[in-house]
Amino acid sequence: MADKKNAVPLPQPSAAEVEFAQQLVQPAKTDGVSLVGPGGLLAGITRTVLESALDAELDAHLDEAGVDEVTGRRVNVRNGHGAKTVQTEVGPVRIQVPRDRAGSFTPRIVPKHARRLDGFNEAICPAPGLMETSKSGRNISDARTEEVQR
After folding, report:
1. Is 118 exposed, middle or buried (0-12, 13-18, 19+ CB in 10 A)?
2. DSSP H/E element including 21
3. Which residue among 1, 68, 98, 123 is least enclosed by CB atoms within 10 Å?
């Protein structure tokens, strides 16, 4: 049970946020789209937000590269997208990650080679010490100690 004294209060959504959510949910109900899961409404929104953020990140990266003074052309340009599936709080989400021609773009929102987004690991992994007191019949910390001593 959560400790109510240490609970962090959630911010109240603005009227615009509530209206936006209602605009999204109403057609989903009508079309029979689920809220969660693969192909669900939240996965679609997550995909759109991530792809928009990645595109903005690449735009900023390309602006930093600048323009060649001799030719007047950009030093680095976009070079398509690569598909990637990442695990999020709402399930697996397939996104398109933009690329640059020089190969120097390193996204921070969804880092290269990352398959899970920040926050997802904390959602599925128990807090330290929680498993050690579980009723599984084996103490995890003892198993780690035995492994280290070998």
Report:
1. exposed
2. helix 15-31
3. 1
